[in-house]
UniProtKB/TrEMBL annotation:
Residues 16-131 form the Cyclic nucleotide-binding domain. It holds the Pfam family cNMP_binding. Signal peptide: none annotated. SUPFAM superfamilies: cAMP-binding domain-like (SSF51206). This is Cyclic nucleotide-binding domain-containing protein. InterPro entries: cNMP-bd_dom (IPR000595), cNMP-bd_dom_sf (IPR018490), RmlC-like_jellyroll (IPR014710). PROSITE patterns: CNMP_BINDING_3.
Amino acid sequence: MGDAANTITKMKGNPLFALLPSEGLAQLADHSRIETFSAGEKLIEENGKNRSLFLLTLGEAKIVSNGTEVDRQKAGDTAGEVSMSKISPPVADVIAVSDVEAILFPSEVIDEVSARYPDFSRQLRETAMKKVYDR
C-alpha cells in the first residue's frame, strides 16, 4: 500500500478522479499499491486479463494496438480504463518505454467506487471510449 495522502495528491492531478469526493479518493488510495516496471516490460497485455487501473507517477509507456504504436502515456496519465470500465478486455499493450512507477488500483475497488459514485463510473467509461476512438 502506498502513502495515502501522497496518492490522493497525485490522483487530484488527473481529470479521471476529479468528480470523486474525498471519501472516494481515500477508498482508492487506501487500497492502492505502487509497482515499478523496467523499460520494455508490459504493464497491460492486449486481450489479456488486466486487474488494475494504473496511474503513472514516473516514466513513460507506449500504447501498442495490433503491433502499432498508437499513443504514449507519461507521469500523471492513467492506463487500464477500457478493462476497468468493463467495455472489453485490454485493446492494447501498455509497455514501459523507460523505467515506470505506477500506482495500481485493484479492479475490485474500482468496481466498488464505481457503484458508489456513478459520476466516477461515467467518467471512467468516457475516458476509456476517448482513448479507444480518439487515437
